[in-house]
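Before relying on records like the one below, remember that each one covers exactly one chain. Contacts with other chains, cofactors or solvent are not represented anywhere in the record.
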Amino acid sequence: MESFKKSLRLFGLVCLIVLGAIGVGISGGIPIPTSNRKKNPTEINITIDEQNEEGEEQEEAAFKL
């Protein structure tokens, strides 16, 4: 009786491993997340236009984040 329980437990373990391998084979596994921060940096441009007494543009600035 004890050898039957061992063989049944081993059969259950083999079934779980086979089902898991089939599932990974069908779905393709877990994709590794990639970091797109370096490839696509966020850029915010802020322009400041000031006019002096003569009506000319004095300063223009752009900032990157």
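The chain has a mean pLDDT of 76.
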